[in-house]
Design brief:
By secondary structure, this protein is an alpha/beta fold. The chain contains 6 helices and 5 strands. It binds adenosine-5'-diphosphate.
Length: about 160
């Protein structure tokens, strides 16, 4: 049985994240989506909110669970007994960052492998940060996130919500 973790900030979860989660859930027996407690970036949603939004987004996947974590990702993988860390790649800058992190992780936890899944074409441009920026400026981001995430974002930004398409 192969267990994998999919770590990230998920601030908030987007359709791009979900695409990776769906595909990883089909590849591995068990997938643990782990929401990083204190990433080095300014967050819009609390850890609890990010976990709850993710839980609702993946409730259709029976072999997936969602937890919060802190500390080294590779240590967390070992604690969970997971052999694989899943990450998504959108562009070459993602690759460079992941490559660096993978080399460091290999030193710290040689028994844990990194598996990177390429983004699907339609999600290539989606990032949580760009999406929040667009939403704040009144852009229509409805189709880039699950409905309940759109509701949460609209609430944070005080955007009047239209009925979903
Ligand atoms: P982190 O701060 O760890 O990068 P993110 O929430 O930004 O957390 O991303 C988590 C993971 O999901 C990363 O591997 C990232 O590259 C991947 N990811 C983010 N958006 C997309 C997308 N649109 N398509 C594919 N992978 C994505």
């Amino acid at each position: 049985m192969t267990k994998a973790i999919y770590p990230g900030s998920f601030d908030p979860v987007t359709n791009g994240h979900l695409d990776i989660a769906n595909r990883a859930a089909a590849l591995f027996d068990e997938l643990i989506i782990c929401v990083y407690d204190v990433p080095q970036k300014t967050l819009m949603f609390s850890t609890e909110e990010r976990v709850d939004l993710m839980k609702k987004a993946v409730e259709h996947l029976p072999n997936v669970r969602v937890v919060a974590y802190s500390g080294l990702t590779v240590n967390f993988a070992q604690r969970m007994n997971a052999k694989v860390i899943v990450r998504g790649l959108r562009m070459s800058s993602d690759f460079e960052r992941e490559f660096e992190m993978a080399l460091m992780n290999k030193k710290l936890g040689p028994d844990v492998e990194l598996v990177c899944l390429m983004t699907s074409l339609e999600y290539q441009f989606i990032s949580s940060s760009l999406l929040k920026e667009a939403c704040e400026l009144g852009g229509d981001i409805k189709n880039l996130v699950p409905q309940h995430v759109y509701t949460a974002l609209a609430k944070k930004f005080g955007v009047a919500q239209e009925s979903p398409k």
